[in-house]
Structures are given as structure tokens and as C-alpha cells.
Amino acid sequence: MLKGKSSFASSMVFVGVCASVVAWYAWMGVVCVTELGGWSPAISHYNLQVEGFRHGQLSLYKTPPPELGQLADPYDPVANSRYRQPYGLHDLSYYKGKLYLYFGVTPALLLFWPWTALTGQYLFHRYAVAVFCAVGFLAGAAMVRALGRRYFPEVGGAVVAAGVLALGLASGVPILQQRAEFWEVAVSCGYALIMLALGAVWLALHDAPRRDWWLAAASLALGLAVGARPFLLLGVPILLVPLAQAWRQAPPAGPRRPPWSLLVAALLPLVLCGLGLMLYNYLRFDNPFEFGQRYQLAGDRQDTARHFSLHYLWFNFRVYFLEPVQWSRRFPFVGDIVSPAVPPGHADVEDPFGVLTNIPVVWLALAVPLAWRGRAAEARTALRGFVAAVAMLFGACAAVLCLFYGNCSRYEVEFLPALVLLAVLGILGVERALAGRPRWRLAARAAWGLLLAFSVAFNLLAGLDRYAVQRSHLGNVFDMSGRIPEAIALYERALRIKPDYVEAHSNLGNALRQMGRIPEAIAECRTALRLNPNYAKAHNNLGNALLDAGRMPEALAEYETALQLTPDDARTHYNFGVALFQAGRMPEAIAHYETSLRFAPDDAETHFNLGNALLEAGRIPEAIQHYEATLQIKPDYVEARNNLGNALLSAGRIPEAIDQFAAAVRSKPDYAEAYNNLGAALYQAGRIKDAATQFEAALRIKPDYADARANLERMRKLMSAANDQQ
After folding, report:
1. pTM of the full predicted structure?
2. Which of residues 85 and 217 earns the better pLDDT score?
3. Which of 249, 552, 645, 702 holds its CA 20 to 30 A away from the CA of 653?
4. Residue of 720, 683, 718, 719 whose CA lies nearest to 698
């Protein structure tokens, strides 16, 4: 009776822990950042892929801007930047005028398409990440429970529940979910499928009558995982474990024959998935082995990048396994690592952390041999086989990522759950080894309990830190989209979680300035600089706010400081140029605009303002060149067209000036200044009556326009004089 009650209590604790973890994942799916800017899921990448399939195409249901295809090199990150972000093309693959999803197709097939077909609604990326993470966690939890029941009956249910908690909240998932976008969709889908594959391997090891079916299920899950994350193909050795066990268990009498049915079960689903992926790639990119990475529209060139190299190995190993985060006295206490020097060819470091120093519970993986010590041969073989499968999976994933040219926290979910599962096995082994020594067992339990508590706390605190970071990043998206009040609200939410967040203070200051709240903007920028006096962007933003406040000398000093810290920052050079232009220091303004263009040659605003400065300085031909460059980049820039007309007029190129002014008023029919300038150009061409018509149009739009009124009066006098002479 007592045993039954104990078993029931253990089951309830297990269910409670699983439900709590899944509830946490679901809550993160609700509250975390939306699709790259808060818009409808209908335009998110995976749903566009689903729509492509539904319309009979392998490309996304999205048309790239025609201008992208007209670029000399559409994969040049500088050239395509003006299309990549505004049109939502970042990290999509572009081939023969169509857009494709480089990140795995499996999530679209397993979740997004069925969801849309069944509900008629689109699924947010963040919800898909929550679903996949929950599936992966529950598969791992089921394995831990099965391990406890079969091999560790002397270990209490609370210890098993603690292991389940470690798998759910010490595995990097709470951090991954803070930016649940299409990158994280592919990673979480791979995690879910690889845990399901491990679960099927476990069953193949322990359910001999149905071993073929379980092995086929493991092969299918692994094949689908490759469709989410291609490098998971290196997990194939886990399928060999049940084969090896079956070979060992063959009857000793007579010759041993290969277990052909198991071999077919292990290979057939995987091969079919592989052939399907090869056909899919061939139909998209004319190459069965091309997933689209070399055609990605990314922030760096993918067709020439060295994606894998031994030169990255030690650097990535340090970042992923050894580097501790910086701790703060202020909530949420967790900061970033101090990155070692990045090797040549390696991409930027994106928020990773050393798992051995920050999730110390994983050290207990070293105790795994205790799990099979003293067991009978059959049990020892099966348990070792399962541990070998988990270890091979961890080793393969970790090795690939240590050789890869980029690193970030989401990649750690590719190998960390397997390592945590090994650590849970280590905990169970320690508990079993000390079962007859209660004092030592209590001491060991206190030790691993502290390691587990620290590891879970780190994951949750780091998740909150990333929550604040993603709120600030989403604020940046809204800021760039002109949704300033929403951006301000997001920056303020980030600062409520992370009060010492320097970047958020600086960005909030910039947003407040755009709303005309200048004193508050200055205060936020000064707060950022109090926290980090060497943050160049805050100096730049403070300079902008001071300039708007009319405090020119202080603004110039802030720009100078910002450029001392980051001499190659195009935006600061541009802002410095604007301030110098307002101060009447034209040669210096021109110099800073030109420097800005060296770092950002395709910035239309800088070309436009440089044209204005050159026009003011009387350098007419150069001004014309920069106005024309502005219009090549941004053909609908009406003010640039108007100013080009002024420059052409100053150069005596009257017909061309008339064409530019006429184009300006066609594009912007309420542009009074352009009507007035068109009238002036027509007057110089001797077309008095046409000029008067344009001045009248300017006055209809802007009745108090003094220049247009004076010009109109002049035209009327000239027409009157001409009539008198007739």
C-alpha cells in the first residue's frame, strides 16, 4: 500500500514538473518578441513558405523587389542592404529571381502547413518554437522517467523529477525562447526530432519484439531532423547502437548473420528523407547538395565565407564551454561574456556563454560510469549503448559548432540538452552508488542540488536578460519604421527588467528626441554615458539631442568624442556634418559627409545633404553628381529632385532643371516649393505665362508663400507690360 502511494506521489511530482516546464514554455511563447517587428504572422518566413507550397511552388510566396535583380551583385551585403531589411529579405536565399528559405523545410511540413490547413490561421514563429521545445523536453522527460524506473528503482521520484527539471530549465531553452524567430524555429524543430530519435533508440534497445519498428521510427525522426538542421546527419551513428546490440544478442550457435531487417529499418526512412531533400534542393538550386546557404542575402557574404575551419575550433570551444558571463549587482544580474579575440574569417559573437562555467550541473556527466557499475552484463550493455548514443549525438553536434564560423546562444541548444541528459544520468548513478550510505548520499545530494539550482537560476536570469535585450531590439525595429511611441514603450519595458542596460537608455534617448521630448532625451543619454562613458552611440545620440536643444558647442563636442571612440562610424560622421552645416562651417561639413560616404556609399540621405553643402559652397557640378546619386539610390526622393533642379538651374541647364521640377510636382502634387522653382525655371526659359501658372499653383497650396506671391506679381507685371506694347 505504501509503495503504491509512493509510486502515485512520484508520478504526480513528475507530471507536475513536466506541466510546469511546458507552461513556462507556453508563457514565453505568448509574451516574447513577435515576428521581426510585431506584424502579422502571414508575412513570416515559414508561413510564406507554406503559401508557396499551397500555390504549387517551392519558392516563398513573396516577390523580391525588381531592383534587387538589377544589382551587379545581389549578394553584396552593402548593395543589397537597402532591400534586405525594409523588404524582410534578411537571411532568405535568392536564386534566379525567386526567394527561398534556407532554414529547414521540416517545420513547414510538420507544423506550419498542417496548422494552417486545420485552422485556417497562420502560426506565429514563437508559438512554433514553444511547441517544438515542449515536444523535445517531453521526449527527454519520458526517457529520464524510463531510466529511473528500469535502472534506478532505488532512487526516489523527487530525484527523477529534479533530473526532469534540469532537462527543461537548464538546457538553454529558456534563453532560446527570448527571440523565437525563424532561426530558432529550425533549431527547436531539430531539437524536438533528435530527442524523439533518441527516445526511439531507447525503445529499440529495450523492446526486442518491436525493435524493427522503433528503429525505423528513430531513422524517420533523424531524417526529418536533417530536414530542419542538415548537420544533424552526423547523428546517424545513434542508429547503429540497436544494431550492435542485436548482433551481440544473436544466438551463439551457428554463424552470425547481419540483422538485415534492422538494417533496412535503420536506413530506409533516413535514405528516403535524404533523397527527398536532395530532390527538393535540386528543384530549387539545380544542385542536390545545395540548401541555399551560398545564395543567402545576409549581413556578410555567404558564397565566399569559410564556414568551417580548424582555425575556429579553440575559439568556439572557449566561447561555448569555458567563458563565464559577467555578473552584475543589479537585476537580472547576468551579463555577456568577455569574448576572446575573434579569429580571421569568423563572424560576430552573438550572446553565447560557456556551459561548463555557467551551467555547472553538466559536470555531473562525468559521473555517468557509476550508472552501470556493478550491473549484470545485459543491463550494462543496454545502458552503455544508450549512453553511447547520447554521447555521440552531443559530440557530433558540439564538434560541428566548434568548427563553424559563427556562434550564438541558440546554437547551444543543438548540443546542451544531450549534455544535460548525460548529467542527469550521472546524478542517477551517484544516487545509486551511495544508496547504502545515507550521509554521503545526503552530502552528494546537497552538492548536485546546488549545481542544479545555480544552473536553472542562470538559465532563467539569462532568459530575462535576453527578454530585455529583445524588447530593446524590437524597439529599434519600431523606431526605424517610424512607430516611435511603441518604440519608447518597448525601451521602457526593457529598462524595467534591466535598469543598467546602456544601449536601451541610449536608444530611448534617441526616440524621445524624435518625439520632441528633448530634456528627457538628454537625461537618458547622460544615464547611458554614466554607465558606460565609452559608448560612442550614446555620445552621438546626446549630440543629436543637444543640437535640437540649440546647444551647438556641446553637440559638436559630443560628436567629436563619439568619433574618437569609433572613427569609422558613418552615422556619426553624417550627424557631425549636419551640425557643422547648421553652424555654417561648410568645408568641415563637406569633409564629414564625404567620410560618411566612404563607410556607407549607398546612403541616400548623406548624398543628399552633401549635395546641399556643395551647392551652398558654390561647387555646382559636384552637387549635381550627389543629387543624381541620391536619386539612383532612392528614385522617389522628391526633395533631392527639387534640389537637383536648383543646381541645374544654377549651372544654366534650364531645360533639365524644368524636367526635374516637373517630375517633383508630379510625384508630390502638394509640393509648393517645387511649383515655385518650376515657375522660376520657366521664367528663365522665357515662358512667362507658364511660369505664372506654376506660381499660382504654389499659392493655392501655400497661400502665405511670400516668394511665390512676389514672383507671381512680377509675372503679372511682365504680362501686363507685354500686352500694353501690343
Report:
1. 0.87
2. 217
3. 702
4. 683
